[in-house]
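With this grant's support, the team has encoded backbone shapes as discrete tokens. A representative record is reproduced below.
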Amino acid sequence: VRDDYIGQNGNQPFNEGLRLLGGDFPALASTMIGPLRLHHLWDLLDLIMHENVPGDVIECGVWRGGTTIFVRGFMKVHGYNRTVFVADLFPGTSHPFWDLAGGGSDPAATTAKTSLPDVQQAFADHGLLDDRVAFVPGAFVESLPNATESGQIGRLSVLRVDCDFYFGAMDVLFHLYGRLSLGGLVIFDDFTIRGFRKAVLEFRAAHQITEPIRGLRADTGQVFDHYWRKETEVDLDWRYYTRMSRRRAKEGRDKWHSPRQAQPWH
């Protein structure tokens, strides 16, 4: 889609260089990550499927749903019987849950929130709204433990995290990393955002995760879509998560201070 992009001062003309790298905020397109990064995601999915790493695929933070639509299309074209989980707050126009701890913000994002029906319709428009797509709406601190405890989310082969902020990243990693199969991929869209990166690095340090972090290096020298392959199981430090959640509550998010330990996956 060669549409305008949303800038701080309103719509700006289409810029092919920005769009290629996913460096803009499209007015119409269903994903921000751009063609180069979509090709990279295709290659990673292809690797996981060819090596038959068990488990479904989830993206946490989906915006208009374009990346998960792409993943479902990949699965359908190749005949892979994997569920694509689509997890997001789906705030529509506004929501009281906003993140803290050095997350940062995107002025354009505040004017372009999407609802669950919007994303469902986008899947339907592509002919991909079927029983292999499952939606997980709500704040991750609540929706993810609900989905794992109920058995909705089981084993995962790919965990893609695109939630921008410190606490959101911690919620995703604590509740889903234990579900990721050995050999599976955890992919980060926002590793260059300070608060998000801080959460990822703290999680790795707290659990002595040493798998190398790789990424897609563009011709510009920029690195996108940082990821690692899970090589060893970890015992999640729930005391660390509880301390982090208490800090979240102290900073004014008491409504969301009800952390639950994820059930172990066997």
User: Anything to note?
Assistant: The longest helix spans residues 34-50. The helical segments are 16-20, 34-50, 66-78, 116-125, 140-149, 166-176, 194-206, 238-250. Confidence is low (pLDDT under 50) at residues 93-111, 253-266. The CA atoms of residues 92 and 115 lie 4 Å apart.
